[in-house]
Specification:
By secondary structure, this protein is of the alpha/beta class. It folds into 2 domains: about 230 residues, Rossmann fold (3-Layer(aba) Sandwich); about 190 residues, Nucleotidyltransferase, domain 5 (2-Layer Sandwich). It has 18 helices and 19 strands. It has an 8-stranded mixed beta sheet with strand order 3-4-5-2-6-7-1-8. Strand 17, helix 15 and strand 18 form a beta-alpha-beta unit. Helix 5 crosses helix 6 and helix 14 crosses helix 15. About 35% of the residues are buried.
Length: about 500
């Protein structure tokens, strides 16, 4: 009788527990896809799809290639320079967790050396990766064979459970992530994957030559020799100086692939646009640039500014109203070299001189290959400023003369011949006077030095009602920017305007 009552209690307890039991719904994520598609993994585990600028990162992180110790992520060392606030550390953390899962699924160890400027900087990043593995329910579904080992789980040094994942250990040290600092003493742990996140943290610290030398020595003498054959280094960072580690060590000359992204780019129409408008508006980025143009060039544009004799301070780029009358008007021309030079621009810079001051009135920067298109663009600019007028398809001269200066090289000489045939012959624009620049000794650097004094003496002014973004960027970053077409055109213009004498009457 007692036993019957006892069983009844058990049944009631079991039924009450069954009523409270919540049946877990099956996840609708595609587990197999998440194991091979890192972008999808980011969407699921990171809970948001990757932004457009991140796709290039993914292509270089997940190569699909194998090596002696890496599965699907082997390849050359890669240095990805991205703007501040581009979610570099977030993506790198997800990539690290995903890579650990992929290798555990294939029963292969993955030892990661996670390097930042100092260990203190690397430690919280390591903790964030560990939290993904320990707490994210989708990660556990995708990689159920991965769990953190007991006793080896500090934020600075931790491991997944190799035995639980089925990874063989032959007496070697078992760890998954070991943090290190590139600035100070670096651990000599052997690694399959070396991840460098925020190798440079402070502009003030990196000014110290001894610190820069110590970072380079730590990398070359301590870290590289401990990497296994087939290992790989991945760096996400931001520039701080022209001689930082991204410009001395992690460079193509040392067999690194370097990818450079800028916060403000130029669209097909020549207008500025934000690289990530969903997060950072163009207005915000432009305001940041206005407040601190030099640090913005380094940390957001990843463009090097030489703080040397080539520097032209942004403060010397003066915007102003332009006069209505000039002593002389001119156009500086720099042309794309030919069909093969598809990255070159054809640039026309219109300016005028009043006394010893030069006013940059307007500029056109276009990708045009044919001479007819270039001449049409130049005449259209003249028409916009009343130097010629237009009826239908035909242009007519006015009383305003304009001098045109262009370097007398082969492909620009061909434009001069077409100018005489079309502008002079067909349209009769004899107020446009072509001057081929011949016999100039010196390279681009020498030419640019020749007009730097005009900036320093505040003799050059830019039309406040026109955009000169590309021209300004090339002036500030001269010698290191990817283009110098606008500067070349402006050099021809300034040299031409300053050599034109005052108007004198002949009796």
């Amino acid at each position: 009788m007692a036993n019957t009552s006892l069983y009844a209690v058990y049944r009631r307890t079991a039924r009450a527990g069954a009523k409270q039991q919540i049946v877990r719904k099956t996840s609708d994520i595609d587990v197999e896809r998440a194991r091979v598609d890192f972008s999808y993994f980011c969407d699921v585990v990171g809970e948001k799809p990757p932004a457009n600028h991140m796709h290039l990162w993914h292509e270089n992180l997940c190569t699909g290639d194998d090596s002696e110790c890496l599965i699907g992520i082997a390849g050359p060392n890669v240095d990805i320079l991205a703007p501040r606030g581009s979610a570099k550390s977030t993506v790198l953390g997800l990539f690290t967790a995903w890579s650990i899962g992929v290798h555990a699924m294939n029963k292969k160890p993955l030892k990661i050396l996670y390097i930042s400027y100092t260990v203190d900087v690397a430690r919280p990043k390591s903790a964030a990766i560990k939290r993904i593995i320990e707490e994210n329910k989708h990660y556990k579904e995708i990689f159920p064979m991965v769990k953190i080992a007991k006793g080896i789980n500090s934020n600075e040094y931790w491991s997944i459970d190799w035995k639980f994942a089925g990874i063989r250990s032959t007496g070697e040290e078992e760890f998954s992530v070991c943090c290190a600092g590139l600035k100070g003493a670096v651990t000599s742990k052997r690694s399959h994957l070396c991840i460098i996140d925020d190798a440079i943290k402070s502009a003030d610290d990196i000014k110290n030559k001894d610190i820069r030398a110590a970072m380079e020595d730590n990398w070359n003498s301590v870290i590289v020799p401990t990497m296994f054959e087939g290992a790989r280094a991945i760096c996400l960072g931001t520039r701080f100086r022209h001689d930082d580690i991204h410009n001395t060590t992690f460079i193509p000359a040392n067999d690194w692939v370097q990818i450079v992204q800028s916060a403000i780019t130029i669209d097909e129409n020549g207008d500025d646009k934000s690289y990530w408008p969903e997060m950072w508006s163009l207005e915000y980025l432009q305001d940041r640039k206005r407040q601190a143009p030099i640090s913005f060039s380094f940390q957001y544009q990843n463009q090097i500014i030489q703080t040397s004799e080539l520097s032209v301070s942004p403060e010397l780029l003066i915007k102003s109203k332009i006069p209505t009358e000039f002593d002389t008007l001119g156009v500086g021309v720099d042309l794309s070299a030919g069909v093969r030079e598809r990255n070159d621009y054809s640039v026309f810079v219109l300016g005028g001189r009043v006394g010893d001051k030069i006013y940059i009135i307007d500029t056109k920067r276009l990708r045009l290959m044919g001479n007819l298109e270039k001449l049409e663009a130049m005449m259209e600019m003249m028409y916009e400023w009343g130097i010629v007028y237009k009826e239908g398809e035909k242009y007519f001269p006015t009383g305003s003369n304009v001098d045109i200066w262009s370097e007398a090289v082969a492909y620009q000489a061909s434009l001069e011949a077409d100018f005489k045939r079309i502008c002079l012959g067909e349209h009769g624009l004899y107020n446009m006077i072509w001057h081929p620049v011949k016999g100039f000794r010196g390279d681009k650097l020498a030419r640019f030095r020749g007009i730097m004094g005009l900036f320093e003496q505040r003799k050059i002014f830019f039309n406040k009602y026109r955009k000169f973004q590309a021209l300004h960027d090339e002036i500030i970053n001269f010698g290191v920017s990817s283009h110098d077409d606008c500067v070349d055109a402006m050099v021809w213009l300034c040299n031409g305007l300053m050599t034109r004498g005052k108007l004198e009457l002949e009796y």
